Amino acid sequence: FCSMSKPVILVTNDDGIVSPGIKALVEAVQKFGDVIVVAPDSPQSGMGHAITIHDPLRLQKVNQFGNIPSYQCSGTPVDCVKIAIDKILHKKPDLCVSGINHGSNAAINVIYSGTMSAAMEASIEGIDSIGFSLEDYAMDANFGPASPWIKSIMEHVLSNGLTDSKLLNVNIPHPSLGPIRGMKVCRQAEGRWEEEFVEGVDPRGQKFYWLTGNFATRDTGPGTDINALREGFISIVPSSHDLTHHRAIPILKSLEDINPGV
Hints:
By secondary structure, the chain is α/β, with parallel strands linked by helices. It has seven helices and eleven strands.
């Protein structure tokens, strides 16, 4: 399906191949190159960077997006990227885009996100990658207003490439805030989930626990993705898989002088 002149674009997500978000993303990017879709066969939200190692993967070609080659995979979002490169494309795509996620992946959410982990997996392979998310968890969310902005980001990345960071975390404000005011390149805000487990009893009398909670942050000042979203801007955070806290290395250097005598 690949031509010699057009870039190859891999599309994936974590909400599943039938989600409205991935349909909107395919429609937004299909004019930019030869598109192939490999996505989970069921929702995989919150899977982070999980991979499947104890079970075989199933891969099935589906007719989900007309003449665009599309496959559903029984694995995680990261599995989808790995198997797409190795067994379908047999090479690295020029660009990987993931989403559009139903719900924000700003701040600490990037750690848990299957959407962002799929894009991150591609970036680890040296592939320019973008994760797109909309601040609306509803399955009937309106992705239309985001489309021209997604296209502009795509044009920029395909024309200029991504150098120091091979991965962009793009979050789109909730449509209820009105027309999108623009885009801001930001840093990831600090924050955490204040969680609790709701306890219940199932029809068989067995106790269960259901995770719930609220996102909390005080890091909402200028320059953060949270601030940009609250002001109605699209936030763009250059991201990385390097989890080293580089400023802490000099502070911890004294550990190298310790000899416990063993």
